Amino acid sequence: QVHLVESGGGLVQAGGSLRLSCVTAGSIISISAVGWYRQAPGKQRELVATTGGRFTISRDNAKRTVYLQMNSLKPEDTAVYYCHLGLWRSGVRYDYWGQGTQVTVSS
C-alpha cells in the first residue's frame, strides 16, 4: 500500500509564498518519482510546472517527504494541489494520489 498526505495549503495574497508538503508512507522504494498536480475549478487536473522559477520541488528522503515551494503566487494558481506517484508493478500501472490541499490566492 502507498499513502500520500498533503498539507500546507491555505489562503495567501498575490505575490506571497506557500510551501506544500507531501508525506509518503507504505511500500515506496524511492520518492524521486513523486510529483505535484493541481486542479482548478472547472478545469482538468494538470502537472504543476516547475519551469519559470516560481515553483520548486524538493525532497527529503529521511523524512520521506516531498515539498512544493511556491513563490510569487498569482490568483490563477488557485487550485487543489495533489501529490502523485505512478508505479509499475508486474507490468501493471498504479497511480496513487493524496487527498489534496486547497491553495487560494487572493488578488
* Number of H- or I-type helical stretches: 0
Mean pLDDT figure: 95
Q: Beta fraction of the residues?
A: over 45%
Helix content bin? under 10%
Order of helices and strands: EEEEEEEEEE
Number of strands: 10
The N- and C-terminal alpha carbons lie at a distance of: 40 Å
> Would you identify the regions where 5 or more consecutive residues have pLDDT less than 50?
none
Class derived from helix and strand content: mainly beta
Give the radius of gyration.
Answer: 14 Å
| Shape label | globular
Sketch the major β-sheet. Answer: 6 strands, mixed
Briefly say what this structure is.
The chain has 107 residues and is mainly beta. The chain has no helices and ten strands. The termini are far apart.
Molecular structure report:
By secondary structure, this protein is mainly beta. The protein is 0% helix and 57% strand. It contains no helices and 10 strands. It has strands at residues 2-7, 10-13, 18-26, 35-39, 46-47, 55-60, 65-70, 79-89, 92-97, 101-106. The strands form 2 sheets. Strands 2, 4, 5, 8, 9 and 10 form a 6-stranded mixed β-sheet that branches. A 4-stranded antiparallel β-sheet has the order 1-3-7-6, with no helix packed on it. The protein is globular and about 45 Å long. The termini are far apart. The model has no long low-confidence stretch (mean pLDDT 95).
